[in-house]
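Response to reviewer comment R2.3. The reviewers asked that we include at least one raw input/output pair. We reproduce the pair for Monooxygenase here without editing.
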Amino acid sequence: MTTVRTAIVIGGGIAGPVTALALRRAGITATVYEAYPTTASGIGGTLALAPNGVAALRTVGAHEAVTAIATPIDRSALAVGRRRIDMPTLTGVPPLHVVHRAELYQVLHDQAFAEGVPFAYGKRLVDAAQTGDGVTARFEDGSTATADILVGADGIRSTVRGLIDPAAPGPRFTGLLGVEAVARHEVDAEPGTMTFAFGRRGYYLYWPEPGGGTRWGANLPQQRPMSLVEARAVPAEQWLDTLRATYGDDDPGRELAATSNADDLQVVGSLQIMPPVPHWYRDRMMLVGDAAHAPSNSSGQGASLAIESGVQLARCLRDLPDVQAAFAAYVRLRRTRVEKVAARAARINQAKAPGAVARTLMPLLMPLMVRTVLDPEKTVADEQRYVIDWDAPVTAEPALR
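Raw output as returned:
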């Protein structure tokens, strides 16, 4: 049985509230500290929740509220030029769900708050001091907080990661920038179908939007990274002009760009990934979610893996009385899985901007690709069928940090 009774959770995005909920179910009182002065309502584009992510949400009692605001996707297709081919589906799993990040955040925040999780805003972490039996967080406003452990759920630019290991790597630029919009154009696809399209100058994906129109996301090739602030400083009309120039030769990319409204455009900034992080924990500080593992959005697993990690950390702390043993067990349960997903997504990224020869060959190779490298039983079955057994006890085993 755990000796941990209190936890500081740094970061109030997706991983933070889930981790706090899971810790409460493990008998640990957690408080979430968020750097921004208010909730993140209205911020962010659309993200995917894979079946394994929804299964992890079930553990903290949030799955029904989340799926109620999401759009289920149970079919997918691949398109190159005018060639389109349906992709095989993975049997025996619920559908993928796409959800607005802001709405997902709000549901998780409300669930945690309703269950008694305290949230403190305007608390930007600057340092943490550890003792033999606790850790004290120091915030930019001069305030402090003390608990048995500190959990860094503070995203891809994590402050906690740097406190654990000053030499830790930072995020890497994928060479792509994300833009999202809802077009008035109605694509020729059944509801619940997501199409992955390789245009002449860029990759994009789309699906019919409930209520009309087509939601689509574009990955624009980009020479240098831009922060979210820099990207949003560019006028939306300018981004829309870029989309129309990039996808003007594509079908339906041309129509999607032409019928999108600048007022509804969401620029999500340069897409970043985390390389393997050598040390996920030190003493009484631990990382969860994107702070430790942020695969490319190509994986469709970023949010789901973050949710899983919060649940698994709580299991380990619940069952193992020694903090170091619990942290080591958590890394053992998570590292191999998340790094395998990240490697798969990295391979997909390489195909998002194919050269002229590859674009010519892709329509011919598509049927073979669907039967081999895109076969879900061979690529994502283990990822999506993964379910955390909350009731199963965690045992301590030696593991590398």
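The first helix runs from residue 15 to 25. DSSP finds 13 helices and 19 strands in the chain. Further pairs are available on request from the corresponding author.
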